[in-house]
Amino acid sequence: MDPVLRCKMRVQQVLQVKEADGSVSQEQVDLTAVYGPEGTENAKWSKWTPSASFKISINNPAAFGQLSKGHEFYVDFTPAE
């Protein structure tokens, strides 16, 4: 099934939550919508999705470090059945 909405998001912050022993137990990731002035590639995203924010808490150690500040990602909304 095709997505009904696609957003382009940029990682604004990654906060590592650490245990007393210094090991990372969680990453909290904040993302916001990408935007840009008229005539730029990112303008089409801000035209249709001018404002969006996501906060993700990641507990999977295999996923730690996969999202880093400044990187951009597409987020697709596809209906779940």
Provide a descriptive summary of the structure in words:
By secondary structure, the protein is mainly β. 7% of the residues lie in helices and 44% in strands. The protein contains 1 helix and 4 strands; from the N terminus they run E-E-H-E-E. It has one helix spanning 43-48; strands at residues 5-18, 24-33, 53-58, 72-77. Strands 3-2-1-4 form a 4-stranded antiparallel sheet, with no helix packed on it. A hairpin with a 5-residue loop joins strand 1 and strand 2. The termini are close together.
Major β-sheet strand ordering: 3-2-1-4
Query: Helix count?
Result: 1
Radius of gyration: 15 Å
The level of helicity is under 10%
Number of strands: 4
What gross morphology would you assign? Answer: globular
* Whole-number mean pLDDT: 89
**SSE order in H/E notation?**
EEHEE
Low-confidence stretches at least 5 residues in length (pLDDT < 50)? none
Main pleated-sheet profile: 4 strands, antiparallel
Distance between the termini: 10 Å
DSSP strand content: 35-45%
Number of domains: 1
Q: Which structural class is indicated by helix and strand composition? A: mainly beta
Please outline the helices and strands.
Blueprint: E1 5-18, E2 24-33, H1 43-48, E3 53-58, E4 72-77
Antiparallel strand pairs: 1-2, 1-4, 2-3
Salient structural properties:
mainly beta; 1 helix
How would you concisely characterize the structure shown here?
With 81 residues, this protein is mainly beta. It has one helix at 43-48, and strands at 5-18, 24-33, 53-58, 72-77. The protein has one domain (5-60, 70-75).
